[in-house]
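User: Fold both of these, please.

Assistant: Here is the first one.
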Amino acid sequence: MAIDIKNLNHTQLNDLISKAQQRQDELRKEKVGKLREKVHALLKAEGYSFEDVFGAAGPGRGKRRSTGSVAPKYRNPADPEQTWSGRGKRPRWFNDALKAGKKEKDLAI
């Protein structure tokens, strides 16, 4: 299947690239699935479980410290259901309120 990319416009070329990337992701997922099946079959044939070989959490997992959830510090006055803990990226409603002239202390719970 030969595609003459010189005759494609910008939109068509972007569409082709997007479809090619999607197909590449699909092929990778298929390959990973087949490899996973092979590994589990090999482990079963040898009489071991995944946890026996890699531990309960698996390789590279479970080493992160859990910080737990944080109580919200700010509440959207227009919609009290929307809150923010003050951590991470500011929510859109928070930025909009600041642009409208409110101060952080006005939004504090």
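And the second sequence with its predicted structure:
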Amino acid sequence: MNKKLLGAIFALSLPMAAQAGDLTARVGDGFFGASYEGSILLLTTSADWLSNDGKGNIGSVGLGVQAPLGIAKFKAGGKLVYMNLKHQDNRYAAALGGGVDIPIGAFTLYGQGYFSPSALSNGVDYYKEARAGVRWDMTKMLALDVGYQYTYVNGKDSNPSVTMANGIYAGAQINF
């Protein structure tokens, strides 16, 4: 199934070559995450990977819309989530959510959250993720950030619940 997820990420990334975008890597206590986000006009595309050595991996691809309001940029959309959790069958979810970016000088405050109820999930009761932090835009191409990430999968049908990330992280971002 990892080949299908990588194929979907590649397919989404082809039209992104002409888009403005960013690549982010973040490391927290027990977890590692990587993200891509691209935008063209009012559309956004995303790809995320979260790995926790003791618990498994979660990958997602997303599509959304964005709208500026004053200095803030609001985003709303959905993502398809693939969960490869240790000692469990692979699970899937369609999560809905959004986020906000608020630039303040050389810094940007950001936050995002996604949720998938049981009706939009396969094999899990619900899936939720949230990430918030502050990014220091060192140059036009490079930024450093620190934040908090929480990712939780509530198990169902004898599958245990899993907290993939719950803590502070440090990260770096490349903008292009």
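The first strand starts at residue 20 and ends at 28.
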